[in-house]
Amino acid sequence: MAIEQVDDEPESAAKTIPHWYSADNDDVPTLVDGDGVEVFDADGRAYLDFQSQLYCVNAGHSNQRIIDAIADQLARIPYVSSGKHNDTRNELVTRLLEVAPESMSQTLFSISGSEANEAAVMLAREYADAPKVLTRWRSYHGATYGTASLTGDTDTSSYIQSHAAMTGNAKFLPPIPAAFDAESPDELAEQAANHLEFVIRNEGPDSIAAILTEIVAGSSGGFTAPPGYFERVRELCDEYDILLIADEVITGFGRTGEWFGAQSEGVQPDLMTFAKGVTSSYVPLAGVMMNAAIADYVAEEGFDIGQTFAGHPVGCAAGLAAMDVYEDELLENARSVAPHLESRLTALEERFDVVSSVHGRGLLWGVEFTDPETGEPFVDPRVSDADNPVKSVLSAAGENGAIFGMGRPGIQLLVSPPLCVTETEIDEAV
Ligand code: PLP
User: Fold this and answer.
1) Measured distance CA(330)–CA(377) in Å, rounded
2) CB of 133 closer than 6 A to ligand 1?
3) H-helix segments, 129-180
4) CB 261 less than 6 A from any atom of ligand 1
5) Domain boundary among 307, 326, 345
6) What distance in Å separates the CA atoms of residue 206 and residue 429, rounded to the nearest whole number?
7) What are the tens digits of pLDDT across the range 294-344?
8) Has UniProt tagged this entry with the keyword Nucleus (predicted)?
9) I need a labelling partner for 133 at 20 to 30 A (CA). Which of 191, 195, 346, 384 fits?
10) Atom number in ligand 1 closest to CA 144
11) One domain for residues 372 and 293
């Protein structure tokens, strides 16, 4: 029997498979270096990283204060298990509680945003002694079995949604114009809150442990809620005895101009999850913050999901340093450049008929594209690349040295630079 000789390695074996929907995208650069807002590929080409990679390198690339803190921790004691005390971890708990919304009283660490959301949901279900969790359509909460089930964006996560396994949850409509027939933001807030109340009553308030929601939608398109909406959501949670969990995985750590998105909305959550920006993503770290009543429950009953890498001291050291950087320099900068980013992006609406709306807050924006001829969104690029301006813009941006994110495929471009971005860099990228 002849054995066929294979001379050449298949080309694909030389590269890792690009993540997300870019499997067909050979222009994804191999990044080897970074500095502030810029990243550099293997050929030395510079790109303005207006995606902060995955909306997470909030302090910018290669911040020396964070790198030094990581090195110091590694040199001292690299790992202490989550069941024991560690000085760096204890210090980070105190520091987080200093800047969190007033309702927050304790922190449990995790590893990733998905796992933090899983933990928050497990804790909420245990504490409330009820099974259901409500989340909204057009949301992203993670890629584990549970969080994939809670995610309400079938476009961006159809792969993971096919693994969705958690039952006993229900979805509600997000407070966005496309979901209601409202003539003003006030009317939109009222209609969306009334709809949520309908879902609560229909599901049975006693069966609902929590509502889990992003405060500003991240990868589903940078949507903000109309004024007054979250006030009503809080009132509904109080009236029906339901916990409010804020998913701050993207909106935490200065992304919306405040430490947390909940503060930019004036809402006090019962539980709050964070990840990404806590360490500027230099190393993985995530966590769940909780109000005093839930913290007391945990102190009495225990809540031990014991993950080996939860609250890793190196992550906690990075978190402390990143928080210093945010406090000393970057929160202020994010607030001061955000209006410039907003005005440069909203000007695109006037200038291009394919840009149908621009929405967001702070340094998290969605630029929405609609086919001007049909008034409908462009096609999903995984189905067809034809005439999809979002993908063309991403490609052209890449060729011209700028990286943006894609929200709903074929519909939104996401703009989310590191907090150290300057007005000149914003002008260049836009
Ligand atoms: N929640 C939100 C709002 C997110 O955007 C993400 C990730 O992008 C997650 C949760 C999941 O976080 P991770 O990817 O760290 O598991």
Assistant:
1) 36
2) no
3) 145-150, 158-161
4) no
5) 326
6) 49
7) 999 999 999 978 899 999 999 999 999 999 999 999 999 999 999 999 999
8) no
9) 191
10) 16
11) no
